[in-house]
Write a structure and sequence with these properties.
The protein is α/β, with parallel strands linked by helices. Helix content is 32%, strand content 23%. The longest helix is centred in the N-terminal third of the chain and has 25 residues. The radius of gyration is 21 Å and the shape is globular. The protein binds flavin-adenine dinucleotide.
Length: 428
């Protein structure tokens, strides 16, 4: 079933990476942005539209990072600590602000795409999250009730006896539906952003890795293999790809590999049974699994955490296929046509972070749920650089901490993820 699997994101098949024009690296700009994913491009758009000169430096091709490789699944991405955990850490008022702002991420992106006229196929059909143990169903119910009380989140519980309306999988003990979540085509969204950033006058420089940033009296000097650029302000938007030149940020994020597979076309009757409402899907396992129909409704795109940090397509495809067949055993004989992966960034406090560190602006640490978050944070970061009041967020100054001795190499993660895999299997 894996013999013909190609190592290329499914999304790139109908949104191939665009041709690139050779660009000269400018001698100076007002704002230099490192990383041309959703964060960097949204930041660039705000700043360039204010009439400020901008260059976006990108190590790889356009869409090299996670932004064109993700599942395109969008929700508010509530903090893993839950409301009680957030209240204990940040107090009642700050927690309410964080929750309220998080609820707004999806609406923000929806409005942005409509206003910009970006045709990324965004559909808000909701998300079904299945409970793999009866206890998980009770936990989901408690979480839904507390979110509804805190911020009126729209959703409802689906008991096991009724779940055929939501999913053809027999694996679940019921689940929860979040009605305002949705899915889009991430590479089309990225292409739309690149076009708008170019039109706004910003320069995007693919294949131009930033190797060093030196402080100068009037700002910074950015060094790449192609030359040097002077910049008054610098924004680091590298998320899971944050490397050595940004050591202070690198030691604050944990890069993890997330991988996906795309099946061959599936019998339409089965598709209709598996995903009758065309929602996006997930379940309650620790290892994180997310799945959805392809935008044409013919295939299943199934994703999850890879155990290793290096890209191991064959191993990732085999592991994801096993997970998928646990949910949909009928897919045992369906070939897997594509496998791909990318890096996401976790943080030690499970929160995304935005702000300024040692003079450099940054937004990162979306903990695997970054499509809406990076768009919103990128916009806020642009306003922060411009000194606008709109740049203020409830996530400012949360305290972006590292751990002693951690320098950015998460050598312990494979062992931790293997433990999560075992714990899922034994229901621990
Ligand atoms: C397989 C997968 C599935 C996912 N699924 C979902 C999902 O369904 N829903 C969701 O909300 N989120 C999902 N995510 C997460 C989401 O894609 C990311 O959080 C989001 O794209 C982060 O955007 P970004 O712009 O911050 O980072 P990226 O898009 O990763 O961009 C960072 C860029 O920085 C560049 N860079 C790094 N160092 C340098 C340097 N020194 N010089 C120049 N450039 C540099 C990199 O090349 C990269 O292109 C998924 C991620 C992956 C990998």
């Amino acid at each position: 079933m894996l013999s013909k699997t190609r190592n290329i994101p499914y999304w790139w098949l109908d949104a191939p990476r665009p041709p690139e024009q050779p660009q000269d690296q400018p001698a100076s700009v007002d704002v230099a942005i490192v990383g041309a994913g959703f964060t960097g491009l949204n930041t660039a758009l705000v700043v360039a539209r204010a009439g400020v000169s901008v260059a976006v430096f990108e190590s790889g091709q356009l869409g090299e990072g996670a932004s064109t490789r993700n599942g395109g699944m969008i929700g508010p991405s509530f903090h893993k600590l839950g409301i009680d955990g957030l209240r204990a850490k940040y107090g009642l008022d700050r927690t309410n602000d964080i929750i309220r702002e998080s609820i707004g991420f999806v609406d923000y992106l929806d409005t942005f795409l409509k206003t910009e006229g970006i045709a990324a196929g965004f559909e808000r059909n909701g998300r079904f999250r299945g409970a793999l143990r009866p206890k998980h169903y009770d936990d989901m119910q408690r979480q839904l009730e507390s979110l509804q009380k805190a911020c009126g989140l729209e959703g409802f519980m689906v008991p096991q006896k009724d779940q055929a309306v939501e999913t053809g999988s027999q694996r679940f003990f019921g689940g929860v539906v979040y009605t305002t979540d949705g899915g889009l085509h991430p590479a089309k969204y990225h292409d739309g952003l690149v076009a708008r950033v170019n039109k706004a006058g910003a320069l995007i420089l693919p294949h131009t890795p930033v190797e060093n940033i030196d402080r100068a009296a009037w700002g910074y000097v950015i060094s790449t293999p192609k030359g040097k650029t002077r910049a008054t302000h610098v924004a680091i938007c590298t998320n899971g790809y944050t490397t050595r030149p940004f050591a202070g940020l690198r030691r604050r994020v944990l890069p993890l590999r997330s991988a996906m597979i795309a099946t061959a076309p599936i019998d339409p009757t089965l598709m209709c049974r598996f995903m009758p409402k065309n929602r996006i899907y997930g379940d309650s396992r620790r290892m994180v699994a997310y799945y959805r129909p392809s935008p044409d409704g013919k295939r299943i795109l199934f994703g999850g955490r890879a155990t290793g940090i290096r890209d191991e397509p064959t191993r990732n495809a085999a592991q994801l296929r096993t997970s998928m067949i646990e949910i949909y055993p009928e897919l045992r004989d369906v070939p897997i046509e594509n496998v791909w992966s990318g890096l996401v960034a976790y943080t030690f406090d499970h929160a995304p972070h935005i702000g300024q560190r040692e003079g450099l602006y940054y937004a990162m640490g979306y903990c695997g749920s970054g499509v809406a978050r990076s768009s919103y944070f990128g916009n806020k970061l642009g306003h922060k650089i411009l000194g606008n009041a709109e740049g203020v967020t409830a996530f400012d100054d949360l305290g972006f901490d590292s751990k002693p001795l951690y320098t950015g190499n998460p050598w312990f993660m494979p062992a931790l993820l293997t433990w999560h895999r075992i714990a899922d299997r034994w229901g621990l």
